[in-house]
Write a structure and sequence with these properties.
The chain is of the alpha/beta class. The chain has helices at 7-18, 30-41, 58-70, 99-119, 153-178, 207-223, 227-230, 232-239, 268-271, 273-287, and strands at 23-27, 48-52, 77-80, 126-130, 183-187, 248-251, 261-263. It has one domain (54-287): NAD(P)-binding Rossmann-like Domain (Rossmann fold). 45% of the residues lie in helices and 11% in strands.
Length: 295
Amino acid sequence: MTGAAGGLGQATAEALAEHGAELILADINQTDGEALASFLANGVTQSIEFRQLDLSDLGHIQAFAEQLCGEDRPLDMLINIAGIYPPARRTTTADGFELKFGINHLGHFALTGRLLPVLLKSEAPRVVSISSIVQAMARIDFDDLQSEMKYQPNRVYAQAKLACLMFGIELQRRARTSGSHLQSMVAHPGIARTTIGKERKQQKRGLRDRAEDLAQAMAMRFFGQSPDHGAWPILFAATAEKAIGGGFYGPDGFAQFAGYPTRVKPCRTARDSSQRQRLWHASREMTGVDFSFKE
């Protein structure tokens, strides 16, 4: 599981550990990640460990995956939770990608592709990608995927979350077409009261940036739910027998802000196979990672 050191990742890890799951917690935050692994491992018999992972670096992703694949043990589940709120000013990954798109989408695309060999060793492997309610208002700008011509944090955030949804659905289509038993689900937490975006308070921001931050804070305060409840759709997609490959799950409450897990409808762009395939090909070109479903 990526992004395990805090927020939704931590809430998901705690719930899975409580029900006896063996866990590999992955995060760039080594201090908090190791502390969580130690806390969760206290008094349990199953294996819980932490491994540092930098999703903004394709080389680090490759090394992480090669180590895990080299251990030659099945991976039953991959939950791609890690993410950041875009900084007020455009920033890039180690490989030159716009930071939000690079971590949330391209990083998880590369990680999933490189971990496919050990996922396919499992009897019933699942991949869970994390999207957002903002996918309904987003679009993929194929002429400016890296937001080089126009950078707006909210637009960048929405595009990355839509890309996560499109990836999850397209992964299921490709797995099914190849005859693979892998299942790919997507979930979104609604509005969860996490610390996402806190680092932006330390940055120089204009009036528009401050207004966006205020709107986010108000939404969390009045409509948000705890990280534990925000993790429910993620846990449902990851573990429920009723969850199906290609399904998109979110809260059942007003505007999908909060509530119990239910299947929700992806936006039109995410349902468009040609758009998903175009994004897939672009992601493969950028990361150099291809997917082989041969076991």
